[in-house]
Design goal:
Blueprint lengths: L3 H24 L8 H24 L12 H23 L10 H15 L3
Length: 122
């Protein structure tokens, strides 16, 4: 099972890459893609990525108040779900035909993110 330092590094990487991908979506992507739905989808992916990067940074720094233990499972689920959700959206925006087979992975990633957040309720 990953550790709290791993979640910190993963959160930092998701934050760094999310901001870089968001900047690309605002400035570079629009030179290649004019479909506003695809641009909006890119923005949605970066928003979720950045929001969940902050969650990972917090989870890496605190313990679960109910158990006193690190919330590693929640962090792992949030990381996996974010990677699947945002990652597939990026690929589908860039080339929908080539990565069409990844379409079903996006909602699975969303469910895994929900499982991570939901596990914090337990």
């Amino acid at each position: 099972m990953p550790s709290q330092p791993f979640l910190w590094q993963a959160g930092a990487f998701l934050g760094f890459s999310g901001i870089a991908l968001g900047a690309y979506g605002s400035h570079g992507l629009q030179k290649h893609i004019t479909d506003q739905t695809r641009i909006k989808n890119w923005q949605i992916a970066t928003n979720y990525q950045i929001m969940n990067s902050v969650a990972l940074l917090v989870l890496s720094s605190v313990n679960n108040p109910k158990t006193g233990k690190p919330a590693i499972l929640a962090g792992c689920l949030i990381l996996a779900g974010t990677t699947m959700f945002s990652g597939t959206i990026y690929l589908l925006v860039l080339n929908k035909l080539r990565f069409k087979f990844l379409g079903p992975v996006t909602p699975i990633g969303a469910l895994i993110m929900l499982a991570g957040w939901g596990s914090l309720l337990l």
